[in-house]
């Protein structure tokens, strides 16, 4: 029996009124938020298993846009059903087989083309959470068009080629994430030291569980709040440094 890896309760989310709008890009729907001024810098946000309409992920899109980036969260599930908190964990493995975070290259290319052609973006970064964190790790190994990446609690696990990052990548983890053990984090650090030729960073946030960093302010527990805010600041600082 697999324990519920999402320790934050997705049922009691506060309402969130989004600042952006939805667009259609070729076969993909996407949520876009732009800053109030012109910029040629953009960030792609890769959602977690709860999909592109989940309020927490839209909050992150709006947050990045507030820091001066054209920010977009495409539907990487291509119109199929996201995971729901009411679904059964016994089915999770099959659901993941049908929603592989390593198979995002085509969608990434569609979105990169849109950002360059339609939005005038010249530098593009990517941030992703959980399922999206795995997708970010994968993309930073494969797509040189992405200037920098931040993977939040998601890593490519089963490939020996997973350490040759193409551009600066930052890995954020919660200390109490029971989907990613500290052993796995130490292994990642060890191998990146050996093989990685670009700037990278790994940081573990004390006492934090899987999914901690995308909580909206009103949903945070007081003890976690400083770590959540720090992780978000760190994420934004990494993007600002390289994008």
From TrEMBL:
What's the superkingdom here? Answer: Eukaryota
Q: Which Gene3D superfamilies match?
A: alpha/beta hydrolase
| PANTHER family membership | CARBOXYMETHYLENEBUTENOLIDASE HOMOLOG
Q: Which family does it belong to?
A: Belongs to the dienelactone hydrolase family.
For this protein, the record's InterPro entries field holds: AB_hydrolase_fold (IPR029058), CMBL (IPR042946), Dienelactn_hydro (IPR002925)
In Gene Ontology terms, what is one molecular function of this protein? hydrolase activity
Q: For this UniProt entry, what is the primary localization, expressed as one broad class?
A: cytoplasm
So where does this one cross the membrane? Answer: none
Q: Which residues form the Dienelactone hydrolase domain?
A: 29-241
Q: Name the species this protein comes from.
A: Dasyornis broadbenti (rufous bristle-bird)
Protein name per its UniProtKB record = Carboxymethylenebutenolidase homolog
Cellular component, GO annotation: cytosol
Q: Where in the cell is it found?
A: Cytoplasm, Cytosol
Q: Name one Pfam family in it.
A: DLH
């Amino acid at each position: 029996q697999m324990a519920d890896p999402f320790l934050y309760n997705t049922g009691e989310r506060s309402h969130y009124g989004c600042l952006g709008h939805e667009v259609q890009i070729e076969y993909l729907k996407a949520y876009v938020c732009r800053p109030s001024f012109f910029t040629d810098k953009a960030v792609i946000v890769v959602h977690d298993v709860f999909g592109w309409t989940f309020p927490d992920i839209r909050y992150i899109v709006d947050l990045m846009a507030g820091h001066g980036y054209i920010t977009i969260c495409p539907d990487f599930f291509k119109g199929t059903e996201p995971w729901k908190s009411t679904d059964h964990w016994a089915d999770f493995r099959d659901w993941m087989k049908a929603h592989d975070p390593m198979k995002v290259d085509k969608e990434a290319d569609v979105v990169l083309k849109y950002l360059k052609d339609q939005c005038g973006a010249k530098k593009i970064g990517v941030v992703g959470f959980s399922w999206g964190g795995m997708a970010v790790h994968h993309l930073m190994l494969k797509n040189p068009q992405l200037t920098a990446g931040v993977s939040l609690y998601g890593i490519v696990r089963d490939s020996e080629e997973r350490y040759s990052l193409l551009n600066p990548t930052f890995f954020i983890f919660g200390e109490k994430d029971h989907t990613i053990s500290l052993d796995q984090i130490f292994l990642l650090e060890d191998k990146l030291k050996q093989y990685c030729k670009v700037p990278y960073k790994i940081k573990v946030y004390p006492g934090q569980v899987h999914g901690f960093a995308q909580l909206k302010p009103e949903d945070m527990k007081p003890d976690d709040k400083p770590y959540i805010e720090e992780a978000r600041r760190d994420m934004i600082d990494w993007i600002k440094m390289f994008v």
